[in-house]
Amino acid sequence: MEPSPVIKEAPIAQGGPVTPLELVTGSSVSAHLAPALALASEWAGEGLVALVLSGSHASGEAVWAECDGRRLSLSDLDLYAVMRDSAEARAAEERARAGRRDLEPRLLAMGLAAPLEVGFLSRSGLARMTARPGSIELARNGRILSGDPAALEGLPRWTAADVPAEEIRLLLETRGFEVLAAYGALESGPLLGRLQARHALLKAAADLAGVLSLGRGEYASGASARIAWVRAAVMPQLAAVLPPEWSDAPATLDQVWTAALAWRGGGVRALDGVAARAEWRAVARAWCAVWWLTGNEPRRDAFERALAVGARAPLRRRVRQALSHAPRSGRPAPLPSRLRFALAGTPQHRVNASAAVLLLAAASSGSTPALPVGALRALRALGVSSARDWDGVRRQVLRAWDLWVLEGQRTGEGA
């Protein structure tokens, strides 16, 4: 059974009670977000200078759905808490980390069927934000919900041309994890889980346009504008630079972008069976084609190239991180294992490369992803997973991503 059509977010009259926090911008915020905003404010504590809304909820692109009679946000709630000083920011981070245990059901009760992402930083930390897609979006669309209305004045105004190649690649790799995570919940199970998985999948598809545009020094405001720019400026030349095995990429990208725009436009529904599997594979192939075009590593064999991408950091950095890698979740890989695989890359790059191997294998498989010999060899060299089947590796790689890179935010294990 499909959910009811999505309900568009209705503006709240200016001057009315939007959240327990004082609204200083005069712009509307859904009252459905009030409990989650209050929780973020509680984590911040008395050192909070300003609470800033960013991401899709600030830009007006958030996706909401009716599910089981409730209105729920499928989009992450992205916030920045500008703190009085760095000590207050660290203390707030610790409170947030402790509060993440069993957070998912609490957020769902608040109407947020997506992660609550809060960045705690001082004014000087805000001024030091590097050129990334997130900092560009914050400067464009950040909305101060409470506190000092001038809190964002020190934020650098970066452009797309300032974003380094490594940040572009990390954006692509992060979206690859979202594609892998969506695989397990698209076809069956509760309706909400399938909606969440399809939202993550189509968000990843839309962000492929961001990767292609950033690589050319452009980054229009909003997913629909970025997709339109890439369709006009990049797609006509794409077929000429792709190898024969990716010749279907232009048509596949166009297909998944059409689905992503329909989703953001209100066409929120879950797919079943064959349709869900076909859409997942289309997004995986689209991701792999963009990955193939990103960076300047040799492009002879896809799995060998994944190993080269994993080892892209300077050797000194790889060895240093092998010795010192200790995520705040407290669950790094054992030291002997880290030293053994130091040449293969930093812990994060090895996890990212493992995800790329999985997607490359799935994109070249039939309806059920499998691991060819080349993929198994690459995964063994990267040392992130000991499993032998595709889904087993997928689960282990996603867990390593959560614990080694995200500090347990996805599972709450780092709390």
What's this model, at a glance?
This protein has 415 residues and is an alpha+beta fold. It has 2 domains: 128 residues, Beta Polymerase, domain 2 (2-Layer Sandwich), CATH 3.30.460; 241 residues, no CATH class.
Task: Please give a structural write-up.
By secondary structure, this protein is of the alpha+beta class. It has 2 domains: 31-158, Beta Polymerase, domain 2 (2-Layer Sandwich); 165-405, no CATH class. The chain is 52% helix and 8% strand. The protein is built from 18 helices and 6 strands. It has helices at 34-44, 55-59, 86-98, 103-110, 123-127, 133-141, 165-183, 191-214, 223-233, 235-241, 249-264, 273-293, 302-310, 315-324, 335-340, 347-363, 373-382, 390-405, and strands spanning 48-54, 64-67, 70-73, 77-83, 116-122, 143-147. The strands form 2 sheets. Strands 5-4-1-6 form a 4-stranded mixed beta sheet, with helices on both faces. A hairpin with a 2-residue loop joins strand 2 (64-67) and strand 3 (70-73). Helix 11 crosses helix 12 and helix 13 packs parallel to helix 17 (373-382). The chain is globular, with a radius of gyration of 21 Å.
